[in-house]
Automatic annotation (TrEMBL):
Protein name: DedD
InterPro entries: Cell_div_SPOR-domain, SPOR-like_dom, SPOR-like_sf
PANTHER family (alphabetical): CELL DIVISION PROTEIN DEDD, CELL DIVISION PROTEIN DEDD-RELATED
UniProt-listed Pfam families: SPOR
Domain SPOR: from-to ranges: 99-174
GO terms under cellular component: cell division site; cell septum
GO MF annotations, alphabetized: peptidoglycan binding
Biological process per Gene Ontology, one example term: cytokinetic process
């Protein structure tokens, strides 16, 4: 048979367990439960009864009247003589000019023989926010920063790049047709 001590111990454990389970609910008072309002998404959206209507326009006739016979153009010292036109038209030679030739600048930072070292340097500079590229030329891999239209901005970057890499860059004009 169980001793008095064991009976008291079991009774105490039961009372403590009931106290732990029931008393917080009894003493807590009225609980406020918060529920999120959930809006369900309809499987098929409701369509408005008013349908949009589009007006189809008639096509515009943009054909030009073409000559019946082929036109032959002959160039004679800045003049064009046409079979159909009796008046010669003057051709004015316009020199081809690259407007972007003087508008951008680049920094040539280094010319390395090892292409892997150049790629590592370019990746490091790109992580730091510089517009860095490589260019393979005559067995060397050139590390180039830019192009940029602001010469003064690139001049400031040369000083920053010298602190980062230890090599002094050279400011050059950017030639877009032959970089």
């Amino acid at each position: 048979m169980a001793s008095k001590f064991q009976n008291r111990l079991v009774g105490t454990i039961i009372l403590v367990a009931i106290g732990i389970i029931v008393l917080p609910d009894v003493l807590d008072g009225k609980k406020t439960h918060y529920k999120e309002e959930i809006a369900s998404i309809p499987l098929k959206p409701e369509l408005d009864s008013d349908l949009e209507s589009f007006e189809v326009l008639d096509p515009i006739d943009d054909s030009q009247s073409l000559p019946q016979s082929p036109v032959e153009v002959v160039t004679v010292e800045d003049e064009v003589v046409s079979d159909q036109d009796s008046l010669p038209a003057v051709i004015k030679e316009v020199p081809e000019r690259n407007e972007y030739q003087d508008s951008a600048w680049i920094i040539q930072l280094a010319a390395l023989k090892n292409a892997d070292n150049a790629k590592v340097l370019v990746n490091d500079l790109q992580k730091r926010g510089y517009q860095a590229h490589t260019k393979l030329e005559n067995g060397f891999t050139r590390v180039i920063i830019g192009p940029d239209v602001s010469q003064s901005k690139l001049e400031r970057q040369i000083i920053e790049l010298e602190k980062i890499t230890g090599s002094k860059g050279q400011l050059l004009k950017f030639k877009p047709l032959n970089p």
